[in-house]
Amino acid sequence: MRRSLRTRIRVALTAVLIVAGSLTVLSPPGAQADLQNPRQDFLRSSVGGLFIHWGERTSPQHTSCSAWENDVRSGGWTANYWVTEARKLHVQYVVLATFHSRLGYARPWPSAIPGSCKTNHDFVRDLIDATNAAGMKTILYMTDDPQWHNEGLSSGDWLNSSAYSSFKGHSVDLTTRDGFGEFSYDNFFEVMNRYPDLGGFWIDNDNAYWESHDLYAQIYQRRPNYTISNNNEDTAIMDMISNEQKTGMSPSYDYPQATFTAGPRLIEADYKLPSTGAWWFDGSNPSVDQRLTLGRYITNAGSSIKSLMAETAQVNGRFPSNQESFNNFADTYLNQIFGSISGTEGGGYLFGGLKPGFWNDGAHGVTTISKTNPDLHFIHVVTRPSTTTLRLRDNGYRVTGVTNFRTGAPVTFSQGGGNLTLTGISGWDQFDTVFRVTTNGRAGIIPPSTYTMSASASAGGHGASAVADGNYLTYWDSNKTTPVSLRFDLGSTKRVQYIGINQREDSVAYARSDTEQSARIRDYRVLVSSDGTNWGNPVATGTLPSRRGVAMIDIPVQNTRHVRLEVVNTHATSSDTTRFKRLRVDEAWIGSDYATGGPPPPPGSTFEAEDAVCQGTIDANHAGFTGSGFCNTDNAVGAAVEWTVPADTAGDVPATFRFANGTTANRPMDITVNGVLVSGGLNFGSTVDWTSWTTTTITVPLKAGSNTVRATATTANGGPNLDNLTIG
Ligand code: GCU
Ligand code: CA
Questions:
Q1: Scanning 52, 257, 492, 713, which has its CA 20 to 30 A from the CA of 92?
Q2: Residue 382 is inside which H or E element, if any?
Q3: Helices (H), strands (E): how many in the chain?
């Protein structure tokens, strides 16, 4: 790691579209970012890596390369030791930093290129063999930086310009950035030639020589299996951006608040495990803060950020005893909960899932969602609430079960008002209490594909339609304009209860400095209109905190067609010229109803209209209904009731609608199942008065899982009063 953090940050993500698994790259020339490439699969499936800074200047510093190598070998160095320790930390790759500016620029392989320390024994080969045999990967650190070329020396230099110059046949000063760029460039190619089975490079910052000689494209071309990671910079062509250890967040373990790069870009956070001292072994044996380290590991995983955990190898490769003991503890600890971390993505972001972050009564944590099962979630409570209750936004998921992940014991829960509430919790874990949550799809979200979007300001290529295209890689950009409004035209009058927003996570979530602030929505107003012209007073106003993950704006229930979100300002102040007035939204949606949970009903169950999405009002003024009321649909063409119906297996089943029609006219409705018309203009004839209820039955095709059954009025009278739907 470099001593100083360079503030130069490249333009973040270039625009990339992924449509149904295929890829269209729309990036500027020279910035060919691959957001999805098979070579990245390994990193994407990883939780993290073990970062080992280890070289000639590991304490006690050696000045003779061969003396260092002798001490390494006679000290009992083995590559398998590092693999074993990495496994204990439940990480999947090892990043070896020996060719490091502060560690003597040593190259632990028999390099043919003179210019700095190189060994006779091939330690890199040993490590690659050991990691590969364990299903892990070795990634080699490369430095850009000659400025420490004589650090720690009273005379002489770690870099040998004359040897390199005669090897090259022209004069090169290795202590300059350009000269060092040339030397390290040659080393990249030597490594690629020697180690086709290396995992890739972890590149510290950048060097102009590498860029002007097109290094990165050549790496991908020669070694399509390598990945390239960049420290501290978002260089579009590189697979992964690494973020060097940040502190100052609250809670301190919540590292993701400090990241400025948006998924699905591969993102890594690298942090030291020893509480004090350098990135490398300096002779000390600092303690490892269990809570801070595990908190970082878990909140990173809950944000789809890889954890690169740095330990300080001694000359013989072994970690000081406090680090070894931490690894042993972590091994046992993580074994119990790894199923909730591995094979998951961070929840509350583009992959779906429950809302992470700051919960009730001081609780804080993250959520994860299975990569293969969209109805399997985990809640990680890193800071427990002061009470026995945990409440978090359900993000529209219908929750069917909650258990304590470690014990399997069921947890009492309820859903309502947009929240999932767990009650009577005991047996908190000191670092991470994990709840396993099963769901049955999401409910109460008006399908974004039916909206027409517009905005009062948009940057070119980032129009408002991007927030409703189901693609988290496209985003609406306010073109540095606030106040700014985003308008949803729902096509017809609908029940509206909340707005859900996934803002682009490309700014820090708290003000790190005057020039590094959050671009998230701050003060807002919501207005509604039936005609898109007359808006009246706001139906909701408020202030959103600067937080990562999905944001929800609740509004008193409206039946309306047009919804306008006015963003008065964002959290960035004028001192942050990059983010001031810049608003970017990946996706936003309108919730018609909050989800309700409970176990999926068995076949033969009745689904009340008052629990369905009712385009109209829920009334209870005409006796004879079941449940707590019925849906009085609007008297209009298109007025609808939509039920969500779970099914264990696919098949044709009877669907019985209970209704009353106190008029003399038939009120026909189109019945669609999962969007497909099943019965056009089904009759809902007169029942003579509004308190006489009757039923009509048709057959509907259900699929296994969650189904929608929708009845839509085809005449200006609207539908009848609908009481319930019985399936089976
Ligand atoms: C009356 C009746 C409602 C009914 C409505 C209608 O207002 O009270 O329950 O829905 O007529 O014609 O749709
Ligand atoms: Ca009605």
A1: 257
A2: strand 376-383
A3: 10, 37
Radius of gyration, alpha carbons of the chain: 30
Q: Which amino acid is residue 1, in one-letter code?
A: M
List all residues 6 or more positions away from 80 whose beta carbon is below 8 Å from its beta carbon: 130
In sequence order, the 6+-apart residues with CB closer than 8 A to the CB of 163 are: 114, 115
- CA 10, distance to chain mean position in Å, is 21
Bridge partner list, 496: 558
Please provide the DSSP assignment of 204-221 as one string: ES--HHHHHTTHHHHHHH
Q: How, if at all, do strands 266-272 and 433-442 pair?
A: unpaired
Count CB neighbours of 624 within 10 A: 14
Distance CA 593, CA 216 (A): 49
- Residue with the nearest Cα to atom 6 of ligand 1? 635
Ligand index nearest the alpha carbon of residue 691: 1
In angstroms, the Cα distances linking 564 to 116, 334, 500, 550, 711 are: 63, 46, 13, 19, 28
**Least distant ligand from the CA of 660:** 1
Token code pair at residue 520: 């998230």
Pairing of strands 93-97, 137-142: parallel
- What is the pTM for the complete model shown? 0.80
Q: What is the pLDDT of residues 112-149, one digit of tens each?
A: 999 999 999 999 999 999 999 999 999 999 999 999 99
Q: Cα 522 from chain centroid?
A: 21
Mutate which of 618, 631, 690 to test ligand 1's pocket (most atoms within 8 Å of Cβ)? 690
Alpha-carbon distance of 434 to 677, in angstroms, equals 43
Residue 137 sits at the vertex; the CA angle it makes with 136 and 138, to the nearest 5 degrees, is: 140
Q: Determine the Cα–Cα distance for residues 550 and 533; give it in Å rounded to an integer.
A: 29
**CA-to-CA distance for 265 and 3, rounded, in angstroms?**
26
Residue owning tokens 């001292």: 277
Q: Where are the beta strands (DSSP E) in 504-550?
A: 523-529, 540-543
Region at 549 (left for phi over 0; alpha for psi -120 to 50; beta for the rest): left
Rounded Cα–Cα distance for residues 123 and 72 (Å): 10
Atom 7 of ligand 1, nearest CA residue:
632
| CB of residue 661 inside a 6 A radius of ligand 1 | no
> Which pLDDT tens digit goes with each residue over 250-298?
999 999 999 999 999 999 999 999 999 999 999 999 999 999 999 999 9
> What is d(CA 457, CA 460) in angstroms, rounded to the nearest whole number?
10
CA distance 635 to 639: 7
Helices 177-194 and 123-133 sit at what angle, rounded to 10 degrees? 50
Instruction: Report the alpha-carbon angle 625-626-628, nearest 5.
Output: 90
- H or E segment at 67? helix 65-74
CA pair distance 648, 707, nearest whole angstrom: 11
Give the number of the ligand closest to the Cα of residue 686. Answer: 1
Whether the pLDDT of residue 247 is over 50: the answer is yes
**Is the preceding omega at residue 320 within 30 degrees of 0, hence cis?**
no
Q: Give how far the C-alpha of residue 49 lies from the chain's centroid of Cα atoms, to the nearest Å.
A: 18
Question: With 0-12 CB in 10 A as exposed, 13-18 as middle and 19+ as buried, what is 530?
Answer: middle
pLDDT > 90? residue 603: no
Distance in Å, CA 641 to ligand 1 centroid: 15
Q: Name the residue with the closest Cα to ligand 1, atom 3.
A: 632
